[in-house]
Amino acid sequence: MSIISEYDELDALGLAELIRSRQVSAREAVETAIARIEARNPQLNAVVQRLDAVALGEADRLDGAPERRGAFAGVPFLVKDSGIQVAGERTSNGSRFWSNHVAARDSTVASRYRAAGLIILGFTNTAENGLASETAPAAYGPTLNPWDASKSPGGSSGGAAVAVAAGLVPAAHATDGGGSIRVPSANTGLFGLKPTRGRNPSGPELGEGWNGLSVHHVITRSVRDSAAFLDASHGAEAGDPYAAPVHDGGFLDALARAPPRLRIALQTVGHDGGPVHPVVQSAAREAAQLAAEWGHQVEEARPLFDLSAVKRATRIIVASNTAHVLHARGLQLGRQHTQADIESITRLWGAEGARYSGQDLAWAITTIHQLGRVFGRFFGQYDVLLTPTLADPPLLLRTIDMQSEDLDAYFEILYAHTIFTSVCNCAGIPAATLPLAWSDGLPIGVQIAAPLGAEARLLALAAQFEAARPWVDKRPPRT
């Protein structure tokens, strides 16, 4: 087995360039990723399903081709064990109830990743059905934060974030329905962008996830990787119920120029005006000060809306969708779920969702659309909203525990922790977390959000932060 010595220092585009120029082979890249997984995954539990043989075969075919096509040709890649289908492979949604579900065909985003030349090496751990900002499913056990095993890596895409943070792969697929890209990215010192609603497709079977709350993208170390992945995956497909505003030009191209002078709103309190942890508040203030030094106009402001209504709407939408997928899976299997099939919170949330009416769900969808209008008007005054990513530093593992039998208490903890991320999903706006601060040896994320369709603006500003306060060399201790 050949190991690429500089693998840990490369982002996905950097590795792709070495492969394209034939300084290394795709097989060497895949073999190096496999070696990293074998050495580091037993302690971290980030990868729950491996496709070594398939990936090596794809690498050999690519090495035998006269040209290596695609921006990421030959780069090993992991996908989340939820929300994405890979033809002929199992996607279990982090659940025993889906343990034998095998995909008949690729999801559209999976097809686009293949077209970009990525080699799918396996699946990463996730909270069951993406229902927690934690990654400790009963089906596979907890994923551990490489910075501190006692602290949560976040979720639900915790396996993806830990795989990138620990150097298993340079980038990994993730989904985000309330913060599931940004939460684990913040907790593990990475860059995570949640795109605009409809920017990346959910097809071919689905038109949207969680009534538009959930989106696909990736977790990366570098800003440029995230931009290049968005170039590879974005765009509506036939039959989509809606699409994000059209972006002219490439997202990667947007990084070639500094952003213009921006009007940045700084928010350091919760959306209800309540306090947040001083550590995350300080991180946001420091980022705002840095932006002001570059000439951006910064002032304290926040969008005003009925948080209790938005919170209630979020709960109804997630509950209703949980009830639906549990029922649909039961029809596939010819039996309904038992207590042994799913975790307590999934069962309780699904049962609650089954009690809601069509009128309840219609009200919830109307409410999140009204929130989108609020943010639309707010961004008529400001170009960017800067906040902490989370209301707290990384929590102790299992603070947000899906084995709980108290759904109300669970939801209160979950929502309070993700108060800054979740509303962006409801409004449909793009938002990104940047690892700009550190406290007690742990990364602290700062979030930037922008109007619908303004990912290029966020990426350009993120690149400005990345250049001024580089995080690429900040790596967790080796496990």
Number of domains: 1
Average pLDDT, rounded to a whole number, is: 97
- C-alpha termini separation: 22 Å
Annotation, overall tally of beta strands: 11
Helix and strand string, N-terminal first? HHEHEHEHEHEEHEHEHHHEHHEEH
Strand content: 5-15%
CATH architecture: Alpha-Beta Complex
Helix content: 25-40%
Largest sheet: 8 strands, mixed
Number of helices: 14
Question: What does this 3D model show about the protein?
Answer:
The structure is a single chain. This protein is α/β, with parallel strands linked by helices and 479 residues long. The protein has one domain: Alpha-Beta Complex (Amidase signature (AS) enzymes), CATH 3.90.1300. 38% of the residues lie in helices and 13% in strands. It contains 14 helices and eleven strands. The protein has helices at 12-20, 26-44, 52-63, 108-115, 158-165, 182-188, 223-233, 278-293, 307-333, 344-355, 358-378, 407-417, 419-427, 455-468; strands at 47-50, 76-80, 119-124, 171-176, 191-194, 215-220, 263-266, 297-300, 384-388, 431-439, 442-449. Strands 4-6-5-10-11-9-7-8 form an eight-stranded mixed beta sheet, with helices on both faces. Helix 4 (108-115) links the parallel strand 2 and strand 3 (119-124). The chain is globular. The mean pLDDT is 97.
Offer a quick outline of the entry:
The chain has helices spanning 12-20, 26-44, 52-63, 108-115, 158-165, 182-188, 223-233, 278-293, 307-333, 344-355, 358-378, 407-417, 419-427, 455-468, and strands spanning 47-50, 76-80, 119-124, 171-176, 191-194, 215-220, 263-266, 297-300, 384-388, 431-439, 442-449.
